[in-house]
Fold this sequence. Notes:
By secondary structure, the protein is an alpha+beta fold. The protein is 51% helix and 25% strand. A 4-stranded antiparallel β-sheet has the order 2-3-1-4. The longest helix has 30 residues, at 7-36.
Amino acid sequence: MKNKEHPKLKIANAWKSSILLVAAFLFVSQLSAQVDSNSIVVHKDPRIDLLIKKQIQINEETTRDSRRNVPGYRIQVINSSDRNKVFAAKTKIYQDFPELKPYLIYQPPNYKLKVGNFKTPEEADPYLKELSKMFPSGVYVIHDVIEIKLEKPE
């Protein structure tokens, strides 16, 4: 005689098998997710590295070749602990002397405002006279390291 299972028992066994299969799948996928969560895979075009290297080279050449620091002179316009006063002087210089580059230095507790990049003190004299009229207290030429622009040979 054949062993016939009851239909309800067949369905119950099928459900048990399905639940067991889903549970096993979830367990394995959870292990897989834990392994993969510690690493990131990035797919990129290898030409990006070439572009980055080229930009680094351009930046180094531009910075190195366009300016050089040499001994020279600047005009010290103001030396004060009043930050607002120094920034107001810097703004005034930007407006009246756009060709002079201002340099703001903070040496606690004072702010110093220096302007220009002059190779000789004589080169600074015309500006010194004008700045002395605008800022009557303590404008003078000082020895400093200045930036000079290098001319590119053609």
